[in-house]
Specification:
The chain is mostly helical. The chain folds into 3 domains: about 1-105, 3-Layer(aba) Sandwich (Cobalt-precorrin-4 Transmethylase, domain 1); about 125-205, Orthogonal Bundle (Helix Hairpins), CATH 1.10.287; about 225-345, Helix Hairpins (Orthogonal Bundle). It is about 60% helix and about 5% strand. It is built from 15 helices and 4 strands. Strands 1-4-2-3 form a 4-stranded parallel beta sheet. The relative contact order is 0.06.
């Protein structure tokens, strides 16, 4: 199976051209490709088959049985062709060996992936793109009719708990500063995203490419100071612009829409403050008031207003974190974990506690 690459015939790999010109039985499913048009011009003999992924596989196996070796040429990359899974599966059942000859990637043809934004695709981006393609392909194989029974049983709902667990494990690796664990946990988190995208693809809701394209478009739209002509003077201006553009894009009737009610309290308060900032409204608080509020809480003891004062105090603490560019949830989690480790390292004075 030979990939014909992104278009021009002069970008075919040498091995690819050698196979096309080898005189072996050549099968193609379209002539609407620059390489195949070059084949026509050079008088190469080939067999044109209907571009039906389900019919190509048995046809190729029959051709192998009749001609010995067969070269199947498909546009683009072999692993991007929808028929590749059925071909390799049927070939394995029939004992037919398959060799895949990759094509030049279209990412290698340009110095910038997006000429409108001058977002360059360097070696790291090219490698990441290739790796992501493999991940999506592996996930599709696991969900195939003869794939993994456990993977095939999963739904968006059944995977929800795993998404939450992987997110927490990723946060734990960040808190511990363990880069090796962080690399692994980010992979596990990415798996959940691709898993959900594959399930959605099977029901024709959306696919992984839609998720990525939507994210790219969002990043470009919400960074007009990078990809447009908007000027910003600080990171706070970026937050204001982001929230304002998000509010406009989602056509929200009020700033209260779209904030998940199930967020932990500190994250909820942080989100509320960001949303208020996005409406170009100043925070109606002074971070220096936190000490005054703390003193009032101590004086009030367990009075009727204690809960209200405590809520106001915590809200002000989140605002302090916001003004300093800190994560209040993460900061509190790290401090609690630090105190837990310190307490666990000391012998317990209570014999009932192991």
């Amino acid at each position: 199976m030979v990939g014909l690459g992104p278009g021009p015939a002069d970008l075919m790999t040498l091995k690819g051209w050698e196979l096309l010109a080898s005189g072996k039985h050549l099968v193609v499913n379209t002539t609407d490709h620059k390489v195949l048009q070059a084949i026509l011009a050079r008088g190469f003999h080939f067999e044109l088959v209907p571009a039906d992924p389900e019919k190509i596989a048995p046809h190729l196996i029959e051709a192998v049985e009749g001609h010995g070796e067969v070269v199947y040429a498909c546009p683009g990359q072999v692993f991007e062709s929808p028929e590749v899974i059925s071909i390799t599966r049927l070939a394995a059942e029939r004992g037919v060996a398959v060799e895949v000859v990759p094509a030049v990637s279209d990412w290698e043809l340009v110095t910038a992936a997006d000429s409108a934004t001058a977002a360059h695709s360097g070696p790291q981006a090219i490698r990441a793109g290739s790796a992501f393609t493999r991940l999506v392909s592996v996930m599709a194989r696991l969900r195939a009719p003869d794939g993994c029974p456990w993977d095939r049983e999963q739904t968006h709902a059944s995977l929800a708990i795993h998404l939450l667990e992987e997110a927490h494990e990723t946060l734990d690796a960040i808190d511990r500063g363990d880069m090796r664990d962080l690399e692994e946990e980010l992979g596990d988190l990415l798996l959940q995203i691709v898993f959900h995208a594959e399930i959605a693809d099977e029901s024709d809701d959306f696919e992984a490419a839609d998720v990525v394209d939507g994210l790219v478009n969002k990043l470009i739209h919400r960074h007009p100071h990078i990809f447009g002509d908007v000027d910003v003077s600080s990171s706070q201006d970026v937050v204001v612009n982001w929230e304002a553009l998000k509010h406009e894009q989602k056509e929200r009737a009020s700033i209260a829409e779209g904030i998940p009610s199930g967020l932990p309290a500190l994250l909820f308060a942080n989100k509320v403050q960001r949303r208020i900032a996005g409406q170009s409204r100043e925070f109606d608080l002074d971070p220096s008031q936190t000490l005054t509020l703390a003193a009032r809480l101590v004086e009030d003891g367990k009075g009727e207003s204690s809960e209200e004062i405590l809520g106001e105090l915590l809200y002000h603490v989140v605002a302090v974190a916001q003004s300093m560019g800190l994560d209040p949830e993460g900061s509190l989690r790290k401090e609690a974990a630090r105190r837990l480790r310190r307490a666990a390292s000391k012998p317990s004075s209570n014999p009932a506690v192991p």
